[in-house]
C-alpha cells in the first residue's frame, strides 16, 4: 500500500514539473515577441519615408525593395517550416533573430539599391523562420495552457504594433509629420504591404528626418532582435538539458537501470545507479517516462523525421493530409483580409489622423478580445473562424460609404475598426489552434509553413489587385472594398459548412 501511494504521488509532481516548464517557455516567448515586435514595428513604420526622402528613391524602386522582402518571406515559408522541425524550433528562432538583426543593420547603413535588396532578403528569410519557430514552441505547450499562452503572445504583438511607431519617431527625432505615419498592422505575422503601399504614393516628409536618424532607429531595431536571439538561446538551454533529451519510456542516456521493471511497477525508494541528480529516487521506467517533457518527445520525433526524408519529406507529409490542405485553401484569404486595412484605409482618403486612429483602435480591440477567445478554449470552437471572417466582411462593408475627406464619418470608421479588430482577434488564435490540432508531434513547423505559404501567396496577389483597383479611381476603390467584403463572406460560408475544417 505504501509503494502504491508513492507511485501515484509521482504523477502530480511530474505534471507540476511539466506545467512549470510550460510557464517558463511561454514567459520567454512573450519576451521574444515584445522585443522583436517593438523593433520591427518601430522601424517598418518609418522605412518608406527613409527610402523616399533620405535616399531619394523612386516609388517603383521602393516597391521593389519592399516587395522582395514579402516574396522571400512568403516563398520560404514552405521549406522553412519543415526545416524548423528538423533543427528544432529554438535554434530556428535564434537563427531567425540573427538574420533579422543583420537585415535591419544593413537597412540602416545601405545607401544603394544593392544593399537595400540584400537587407530585404535577410529580413524576409528571418521572418520565414521566426513565425513557424514561435508557433511550434507554442504548439508544444499543454492543451490546457496553450490557449492562454497564445493569447498572451498575441496581445504582446498587438500592443507592440501600437507602441512601436511612436518609439521609432522618437528615435529618428523626426518632424511632427512623422506622428502621422500609420503603424504596421497588428498581429504576430508581418502584413502584406504594411505601410508600404502608402509610401508608394508619396510618404510623409520629415518622418525619418534628413539627418539620417533612421540609421539610429535601424540600429536599435537590430539590437532588439539580438536581444530576442539571446532569449531564444536561453529557451534552448531550458529545453535541452546537458545530459540530452531522454526518449519517453527509455532510460536517460548514461543511466543504467538494472532489472528494467515493467512500466508502472512500484519500486522501493532506493536511488537508481547513475541517477544524474544526487539523492533523487526514481521508480523505474514509468517514473522516467513521466519525468520527460512533451517538448523533449517532439524534439526527438523531429530528428526521426530528419532521417525519414528531410525538408522535402516534411512538406510532402503535410500535402498528403488532405483535410489540412483543404483547411489551408478555404482559410487562405484570411491573411489578405486582416492585413489589407493598412492599405485601403489610408488610400480611401479619410486623412492621416483618422487612419492612425483606425489602426490603433483595431489593434487594441484585437488585444482586448484575446482573453475572451482563450477562455474555455473558444478559439477551438467551429464557429470561431466563420465569425472572424464575417467581422472582416462587416468591416470592409462599413468602409464603402466613406466620404474620402478629412471629415469622414468617425462613427462608421470606429465601427469598422472594431470589426477589423474582432476579425484579427478571432482568426489568429483559431487558425493557430486548428493547425495544431491537425499537426502530429514533430510536424508543427511544416504545417505552419504550408498554411503560411498558401495564405501569404494569396495575400500578396490580392494586395496587388487591390492596389490596381484603387489606382482606377473612386469607383475602383469601392469595387475593391466590395470585393474584399464579398470574399470574407464567402470564406465564412466555406469554413462553416466544409468538413475537415
Low-confidence stretches: 1-9, 174-212, 240-308, 403-407
Helical residue percent band: over 70%
Number of helices: 18
Count of DSSP strands? 0
CA radius of gyration: 24 Å
- What value does the average pLDDT take? 76
Overall morphology: globular
Strand content is: under 5%
Q: What's the helix-strand series?
A: HHHHHHHHHHHHHHHHHH
Largest beta-sheet details: none
From the N-terminal CA to the C-terminal CA, the straight-line distance is 48 Å
Structural class: mainly alpha
Label this structure with key terms:
single chain; 501 residues; mainly alpha; 18 helices; 73% helix
Report on the architecture of this protein.
With 501 residues, this protein is mainly α. The protein is 73% helix and 0% strand. The chain has helices spanning 2-44, 47-54, 59-87, 89-109, 113-139, 143-172, 196-199, 213-239, 284-291, 294-319, 322-330, 333-339, 341-347, 352-374, 384-399, 410-438, 444-471, 474-497. Helix 4 (89-109) packs antiparallel against helix 8 (213-239). The longest helix is centred in the N-terminal third of the chain and has 43 residues, at 2-44. The protein is globular. The two termini are 48 Å apart. Mean pLDDT is 76; it is low at 1-9, 174-212, 240-308 and 403-407.
